[in-house]
C-alpha cells in the first residue's frame, strides 16, 4: 500500500547549506533529517541554487527530487552580470557566446520539455533575450 501524500513543496535552496527554518516548516517534514539528506546529496553543488521538489507524506516521511540550477542564474553567471535588463527590448546588459549557450542548454536538457539540443538552445536563447543578454555568433 502506498503512502498518502500530505503536501508537495517546491523550494530553491543553496546546495550543501540547507538549514531548518520557516520555509521547510511549511512542508511538514522532519527538518533535521531533510537537511542532512539534502546537504549530503548536494555537496558537489555547494553554493549553487538547487531547486528541490519535496513530497511530504502523512507519516512525516518524505522524498525529494533535485533539479538543475535555473537558467536565469546560469545566464547571469555566464554573462558576468548581477541582474537582467529592466527593459530587455531597449537595453543589453551583457553577452554570451554560442558555446556558452550550448553548454547551458546541455546542462538544462534533463529539466526542459524537449530531448532535442537545438530546441533546448532556442529555449535558453529566448530566456537570454528576455533578460537583455545578447548571444554572439
**What is the average per-residue confidence, as pLDDT, rounded to a whole number?**
92
Read across the widest sheet, the strand sequence of neighbours is 1-2-3
Quote the CATH topology of the largest domain. Arc Repressor Mutant, subunit A
End-to-end CA span: 55 Å
**Percent strand:** 15-25%
- The assigned structural class equals alpha+beta
- Low-confidence stretches are none
Q: Would you report the number of β strands? A: 5
Topology:
Elements: E1 5-14, H1 22-25, H2 31-41, E2 49-57, E3 62-66, H3 71-79, E4 94-97, H4 98-108, H5 117-131, E5 133-136
Parallel strand pairs: 4-5
Antiparallel strand pairs: 1-2, 2-3
Helix pairs in contact: 3-4, 4-5
Describe this structure in words.
This protein has 137 residues and is α+β, with helices and mostly antiparallel strands. It folds into two domains: 5-66, Ribosomal protein L11/L12, N-terminal domain (Ribosomal protein L11, N-terminal domain), CATH 3.30.1550; 71-136, Arc Repressor Mutant, subunit A. The protein is built from five helices and five strands. A hairpin with a 4-residue loop joins strand 2 (49-57) and strand 3 (62-66). The mean pLDDT is 92.
Gist of the model:
The protein is about 35% helix and about 25% strand.
List keywords for this structure.
two-stranded parallel ribbon, Ribosomal protein L11, N-terminal domain, single chain, Arc Repressor Mutant, subunit A, alpha+beta, 137 residues, three-stranded antiparallel β-sheet, 5 helices, 23% strand
Amino acid at each position: 500500500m502506498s503512502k498518502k501524500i500530505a503536501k508537495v513543496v517546491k523550494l530553491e535552496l543553496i546546495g550543501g547549506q540547507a538549514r531548518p527554518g520557516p520555509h521547510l516548516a511549511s512542508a511538514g517534514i522532519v527538518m533535521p533529517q531533510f537537511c542532512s539528506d539534502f546537504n549530503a546529496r548536494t555537496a558537489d553543488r555547494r553554493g549553487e541554487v538547487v531547486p528541490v521538489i519535496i513530497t511530504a507524506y502523512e507519516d512525516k516521511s518524505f522524498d525529494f527530487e533535485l533539479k538543475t540550477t535555473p537558467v536565469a542564474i546560469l545566464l547571469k553567471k555566464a554573462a558576468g552580470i548581477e541582474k537582467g535588463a529592466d527593459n530587455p527590448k531597449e537595453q543589453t546588459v551583457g553577452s554570451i557566446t554560442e558555446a556558452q549557450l550550448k553548454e547551458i542548454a546541455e546542462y538544462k536538457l534533463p529539466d526542459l520539455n524537449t530531448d532535442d539540443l537545438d530546441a533546448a538552445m532556442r529555449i535558453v536563447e529566448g530566456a537570454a533575450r528576455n533578460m537583455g543578454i545578447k548571444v554572439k555568433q
